[in-house]
Amino acid sequence: MKNINKIENMIEGWLKPLPHIPAKWTKMIAENLWWIVGIGIILSVIGIFSMIGVLSTAAVFLERAARMSGYYNGSINDGWFVAATVVSLAMMIASAVLLIMAFNPLKTMHKKGWDLLFIIALVSAGAQVLSLALNFNIYNMFAGLLSALVGIAIGMYLLFEIKSYFKSGKIAAVEEKK
Questions:
Q1: How far is the C-alpha of 51 from the C-alpha of 54, rounded, in Å?
Q2: Residue 67: its pLDDT value, please?
Q3: How far apart are CA 7 and CA 12, in angstroms?
Q4: What is the SS3 assignment for 166?
């Protein structure tokens, strides 16, 4: 957790000079974040089952293509597609589990929920970079990397804008009793 705190402080330093969102908007986002995460959980579960369907369909097609010895040359891209899909599925499952863990702390505005969202953002950033690396498509890699970096930057900016509304441990428990 110490390394994650170092990363958190470094990113917070980068974002400090940027303009801030008005306080009433950040408060509204922070107070409603728990149900936005709830929608994210539902969409993640749907995405996981869809990805499992893609993997099983790909396995059937690859197996049939392999049987057609005269027409199939064993393209390496097929194997990388399956590997990239398995890695994406693993990252999606990890993110979904972390979202589920963050749901109740976010509902009560505890810092633990924000910390879990920050970890999800880091896992997602790593997953996007890994997915681009496994893709091997040089033409789409630049556009994919650019869009991934923009998405990560916007997500981190929004996450750090609402950080002050999430309190840790005893402070949050005292404020809940008031």
A1: 5
A2: 60
A3: 8
A4: coil
